[in-house]
Prior knowledge:
Elements: H1 7-41, H2 44-61, H3 67-72, H4 77-93, H5 97-121, H6 143-158, H7 164-184, H8 190-215, H9 229-255, H10 261-289
Amino acid sequence: MPLAAPPSARRDARSTRLAVLLISVGTASFAVVAAAYVLSARTARGQEVENALIAARREQLQGSPSSAAEILATVSVWSLVATIAAVMALALARGRPRLALGAGAVIGGSIVTTEVLKKLVLPRPPLDPDAPPWLLANVFPSGHTTIAVATAVAFVLVVPYRLRGPAALAGGFYAAGLGAATLDAGWHRPSDAVGAVFLVLGMALWACGALVWWRGAGRPAEPTRAWAYLPLAAVAALGGIANIVGVPRTLRAIDSGPLDRAGVEEAYAVGLALVALAVAGAMGVLLAALRD
């Protein structure tokens, strides 16, 4: 009869499987980023729809800054440095230097990747003949949304295990709010925010997979409480329903001519629902992936 593998060998095999799982889910998240970019920036239909939305929002604002722009202005280099320092300090205070490095890498890597993709890598071909010149530049993915989601995800990673659920809810609310502000201010299209959300999720899961591969996987004292998933599932469900109902109506309104004020408000609500769905889904995936 073959001998059973020693506990250390079983633990190493478990860590390897978990690392591969985390990296695989992270890769799938990057695939969502690619799909969002292709559909929104590399197809004429995608450009026409989102250009109509952002142009109508800008016209609605009529050059006057919204309160959302004031909120977005609070995101600065210094606030970002303070956030990274706070996240890494929390991990170090818990005696987790590798985790501090990983959390800092998630924030820094996400932001650098976003800026490189937006400014150097991803083109936005002129597929919409009616687009004004100011809509031709690529702004995918959203930098402000990336910062907000990366901050939220990093705090989920570094807090004690039992606090991950509350951290995901609070961080998700903050990230969704800032992502919505980029739409409200007329700075970004919905796809820009969605791409940023899943870019950060992919970075976080890759970082977690690397940490597990490097250090091994421990066994949490208790699983994540089910209640932590319920608000995220509720928001995701409401966002999904809003998009199922609202997207066809918005498309018909755009095809019928310039959006009136009611059409702009409805399209804006659909965009907010899409951002909320993306953030809630990403936070739920993160919690589920970190259960072990």
